[in-house]
Amino acid sequence: MKTVTRVLLALLAASLAFAAAAQDKVLREGQVTERALVDALAPAAAASAGEEPMRMRSFRPAVRPAAVAGATAATGAVAAGAQGGRASILVTFVTDSAELTGRAKSALDVLAGAMKSERLAGVRFTIEGHADPRGGDEHNMKLSTARAEAVRQYLITHDGLPAERLDAVGKGATELMNTSNVTAPENRRVTIVSKTG
Fold first, then answer.
1. Paired residues of 166 in beta bridges
2. Cys bridge to 22: 67, 92, 136, 176, which one at CB 3.0-4.6 A?
3. What is the CATH number of domain 2-195?
């Protein structure tokens, strides 16, 4: 009995470690796919309504986590909260500005396609801008807010998403993803969070 308990605990720990690793992944511009984003951003209730939960040996989650769904789509870059989904995208800007690069615009066009999908119709989103700690707290907060707003405005004006579905917020350097290398690109990211209700 003790061996079975240890095996089950090991499987549970492995699945939790897999989910944590998936949460720490940032989609780079060339990795952004509409399917991965839809899977990442679909609220938990919507994700479980039309899909069979993924089975992992004897562990069977009641709701298919978006992190697992994104990994199934061969990107592995996804995290889901209890209510909404979450996807981090490395969106590039001209240095020390909120001007989007051409590659960033291409990635955002894919994001817009996902947001317009049937599974995400009517879902509201928060666009979070993140920065690394260079430049000071006040500067980084202003820059991350401006970048989140630039993404919001691009999705509205270029891709035709309704303004009322999108909010923008700057996080500055308050939520570093890579604390061992604070200037790492993943600390300068945009995170899209779906909201329910």
1. 125
2. 67
3. 3.30.1330.60
